[in-house]
Amino acid sequence: MSTFSLIKFYIDFITLICSIITNSTLILLVITHSPPKLGNYRHLICYFSIISMLLSTLAFIVEPNHPTVALLLLGRSENEVKLLKSVISDSVASMFQTNIFAISISFVFRFFALQREGRLRYFAGKFLCIWMVYPFVFGLISMVILYQLGPNDRMTSLQDLKKIYDLDIEKTTYSGGFYWTIDEYGNKIWNIKEASGITVLNFMKLIPLSTIFYFGTKSYKIIRGLISQGE
Predict the structure, then answer these.
(1) pLDDT tens digits for 169-212?
(2) Would the pLDDT of 24 be above 70?
(3) What is the pLDDT of residues 84-101, one digit of tens each?
(4) Domain range spanning residue 20?
């Protein structure tokens, strides 16, 4: 590895260790020292910490040209290597999606707590399990979409970008989809599959972001009202 890659590797490794230590300590403190009045929010804190550690671990493993990836691929056939690399890479993006949805749960819980209308019952028992599962459902959907948008046997990024957009991507990092591609007859066509897939992914991101904005704004107004009453 080059000097820059080596430095980045150690920075990522230290970040991973810090994430594991910090989140593990937080989970331990919540289990052993958190007051009972926190209620089910204690479970949510542990839940958020676990997701954070999973995301940090996957991000470290998927680092390009990473030794850990090489270890995972040893002794596997070419098709298995392609499949495993694709699944691991897509899992990072899906965990990021899961993380956003999990953060939105916190805003909903805090709003219900500020309301004091007994709506925290929707975070108890089976409802709590549903709240914890649904971010992973959307994460799995994201992973499936990303996998479907992956490379196919007919297309290579280098050739298509050079032919369609006249771009040379050697030593270049890029992200996105091919909204226009070339069919088997050499005609330039709109790639409906990738365009619709990316549209769905972006729409899914709007769900937690809208939730955060809506419940965050409502909570802010309640807090302002409480402060005004105190004055």
Answers:
(1) 554 545 556 677 776 777 777 777 777 888 888 888 899 999 99
(2) yes
(3) 667 777 788 788 889 899
(4) 3-148
Residue 96 within a domain: yes
How many domains is the chain partitioned into structurally? Answer: 1
Q: What is the pLDDT of residue 166?
A: 64
Residue 208 lies in a domain: no
pLDDT of residue 74: 43
DSSP assignments along the chain, one per residue:
--HHHHHHHHHHHHHHHHHHHHHHHHHHHHHHH--GGGTTHHHHHHHHHHHHHHHHHHHHHTSTT-HHHHHHHTT--HHHHHHHHHHHHHHHHHHHHHHHHHHHHHHHHHHHHHHTSSGGGGGSTHHHHHHHHHHHHHHHHHHHHHHHTS--SS--HHHHIIIII----TT-------SEEE-TTS-EEE-HHHHHHHHHHHHHHHHHHHHHHHHHHHHHHHHHHHHHHH-
Q: What is the distance between the alpha carbons of residues 207 and 132, in angstroms, rounded to a whole number?
A: 16
- Does 125 fall in a domain? yes
Is residue 140 assigned to a domain? Answer: yes
